[in-house]
Amino acid sequence: RWEVDAPRAKLTMLYGMLNGELEPSNYIAEKLFECFHCLRCENACSSGVPLTKVFADARADLLDAGFEVTGTTSITDDERCVRCLNCVRRCGHEARTFIGDRVVVDRLKCQSCGNCLDVCSAQAISIRRGFGTNPDELREQIRRFLSDPNNPAAKVIVFACTWSNSPGFQMAQMAQPDTAAEYLVLFTACSGRLRSELVLDALEHGAWGVLVTRCPEDDCDHGGSHRTQARLDVLGKLLTGIGVDQKRIQEEIVAKGDPKAFVAAVSTFVDQIRAQGPLGKAREP
């Protein structure tokens, strides 16, 4: 929600450089590399401008000009990397290769999905500009929401796929202004990068329940949707084993561009959790 981050402003900066009114700079280069490749700008353009191709060409030119920027692309700390190559095998965009004795990231191919963060056992991979989607950023938002003394209604955390559910979230805000304080929607980029400990962390800090929305597997551009389902199945069995109703953690398939389905999924889950009451209620004497 900052003008210079919007596609229109990026086009304006490109136009300025082409006409000699702006000099290429690290600032401009960084802004051009801050993108999650969601295609929303392109889908919304009534003129049919291939914005993602324009930006991709500009990034290539800026790299050729010697600008060393990362934006939202993933980077690897060579000192911490154990060379297991899990990230290379997992990357569905072929953006990671092993050259010499280190993992090299192709910043033009990286789609900023963050699946490489999920598979790195050494936690050597990071995305410096996560815009709220990095694990530490998500954890902080969860704790702040659930511990807010001015919002005693807080009870549900919703983890949503950035590419599928962002428009649906906007609709949910407009459709449910009276119940929005009960839940917090957090975007994880690809749902496949959502780690189990983050879900459990939400419950530990007071959430009554956690909902995860994901793409249909055939529509997932990053290969993470099926991992989400498998991970939540394991978590459900774990909760059952310690006497917690596994229905407190649920996943819902929401297709791209289906705001009604997103609103319905969140509303239904909040109603169910509200009826169940706070976690641990059943164990009270």
Give a summary of the structure in a few sentences.
The protein has about 280 residues and is of the alpha/beta class. The chain is built from eleven helices and eight strands. The chain has helices at about 5-20, 25-30, 40-45, 50-65, 85-90, 115-120, 135-145, 160-175, 195-205, 225-240, 260-275; strands at about 75, 95-100, 100-105, 125, 155-160, 185, 210-215, 250-255.
Structure summary, number of beta strands: 8
Strand order of the largest sheet: 6-5-7-8
The chain-level structural class is alpha/beta
Shape annotation: globular
The residue ranges in which pLDDT falls below 50 over 5 or more consecutive positions are: 174-179
Give me the strand/helix succession.
HHHHEHEEHEHEHEHEHEH
Straight-line N-to-C gap: 48 Å
Put simply, the count of helices is: 11
Major β-sheet annotation: 4 strands, parallel
Helix content: 40-55%
Mean pLDDT: 86
Radius of gyration: 20 Å
Strand content range: 5-15%
Structure in words:
- The chain has 285 residues and is α/β, with parallel strands linked by helices.
- The strands form three sheets. A four-stranded parallel β-sheet has the order 6-5-7-8, with helices on both faces. A two-stranded antiparallel sheet has the order 1-4. The protein has a two-stranded antiparallel sheet with strand order 2-3.
- Strand 2 and strand 3 form a beta hairpin.
- Helix 8 packs across helix 11.
- The chain is globular, with a radius of gyration of 20 Å.
- The termini are far apart.
- About 2% of the residues have low confidence.
